[in-house]
Amino acid sequence: MRTIFGLDEFSSILQRRFRTCTITVLPEPARYFSFHTASNSATAVIGISGGLDSSLALLVTVRAFQALGKDPNDIVAVTMPCFGTTDKTLQNSLKLMEALGVTSRTVPVKDAVLQHFKDISHDENNKNAAYENAQARIRTLVLMDIANKVNGLDVGTEDLSEFVDGWCTYNGDHMSMYGVNATIPKTLIRWMIESLIKGGTFESSSDALRDIADTPISPELLPPDASGKIAQQNESIVGPYALHDFFLYYMLRYGFSPAKIYFLACKAFKDDFDGETIKKWLVTFCRRFFSQQFKRNCVPDGVKVGSIALSPRGDWRMPGDASAAAWLAVFYDYHVSQLCCTAGAARQDLTVQHHTAAYAGAKRQDHGAVHILSAARYQLAQRGGIGVISQTDGITAVFLNGGPEIKIFPMEVGGVADDTA
Q1: Of 135, 305, 136, 102, whose CA–CA distance to 208 is shortest?
Q2: What would the pLDDT profile of 4-57 be if each residue is shown by its tens digit?
Q3: Are 78 and 107 in contact (CB under 8 A)?
Q4: Model-level pTM?
Q5: CA-based Rg of the chain, rounded to a whole angstrom?
């Protein structure tokens, strides 16, 4: 596997974006990355949330400015508190900016978001996708306009894990002028922050960074709980990032199937997660990965670190309407075979009988039918394989001998609602 370069090499990529002179030769590690013409930006503008991603992006930007002999005060760091911002993350943002000597700005966006809700006739008590995403888009508007005002480059903070599962707001935090974290997964970002703390690289900011590393990962788009703590946590929705990043590595780097990834994950995490937990989050990962390609089709330029990247311009080409159904159908069949072996049921009784219907569905590109049917076989296998599968009026159901009917609806086993568009 290709070496992951350290902060100095990483920051050299950002240096290239801020050079105001002609193209020059960068340090040796820089040859592994794609470079672009000088942006002629005098400053950098970056949104600071008090989380891991924006903290690393700010540290890289500071190091790049130091290497270029530029004043860190030319970095405009902006915190934009709104409905979900907790006092802890706000204070950590301010402490980090002060410790690094950058220009600190606080731009509350609550009033702007509420005015936007009035403009589009949205009830502020309805905390749906519009409620959450409006905040992210207003923040991006603020950053882009400040960048224009100060002749700056809006430095993005989204990481690889978030681009993989679409955990970003389309044309909100999804967008920037240059993404320094675009190919770094969340687990590696945490490791980098912790390593910088241990190494004393930014000694004056160690306390703030330590508190940031200990803060639950959250977009903070929903109000805090009654005690003022973060109520919305990423890992409760997309799963533990240890699993998530394991899935993305073996899927994107080696092209392994969900069944093989599941097998490897069960071995690698046998002391941390049971098989059902791994299966749950792997299915979620696959669904989100396929459904969120439309966001990855228009991401900003960014540095490539390591061997995995999702830039549509050179690394990953995939249609926006691709479906995870075929992958997950095979995955469910894998579980059927495993359960049948355990229960002593004949695999033929569960699968061959219905393969004709499944293949017919695939031929007419009805991927949902294949997916639901596979899930029905999975449910039947879980119960020992005693019963029959019936499909009537678009509903797939499992009838158990001497037991209740189990109805399987598309939303239970099919796609997942896109709550982060």
Answers
A1: 102
A2: 445 555 455 445 544 433 222 222 223 222 333 346 778 999 999 999 999 999
A3: yes
A4: 0.76
A5: 24
Q: How far apart are CA 400 and CA 386, in angstroms?
A: 6
Contact between 81 and 110 under an 8 Å Cβ cutoff? The reply is yes
- H, E, C per residue of the chain: CCCCCCHHHHHHHHHHHHCCCCCCCCCHHHHHCCCCCCCCCCEEEEECCCCHHHHHHHHHHHHHHHHHCCCHHHEEEEECCCCCCCHHHHHHHHHHHHHHCCEEEECCCHHHHHHHHHHCCCCCCCCCHHHHHHHHHHHHHHHHHHHHHCCEEEEECCCHHHHHHCCCCCCCCCCCCEECCCCCCHHHHHHHHHHHHHHCCCHHHHHHHHHHHCCCCCCCCCCCCCCCCCCCCCHHHHCCHHHHHHHHHHHHCCCCCHHHHHHHHHHHCCCCCCHHHHHHHHHHHHHHHHHCHHHHCCCCCECCCCCCCCCCCCCCCCCCCCCCHHHHHHHHHHHHHHHHHHHCCCHHHHHHHHHHHHHHHHHCCCHHHHHHHHHHHHHHHHCCCCEEEEEECCEEEEEECCCCEEEECHHHHCCCCCCCC
Q: 208 and 92 in contact (C-beta within 8 Å)?
A: yes
Number of alpha carbons in the 13 Å side-chain half-sphere of residue 360? 6
Contacting residues for 321 by C-beta, under 8 A, at least 6 apart: none
The one-letter amino acid at 381: A
- pLDDT tens column, 254-308: 989 888 999 999 999 999 999 989 999 998 999 999 999 999 999 998 888 888 8
In single-letter form, the type of residue at position 243 comes to: L
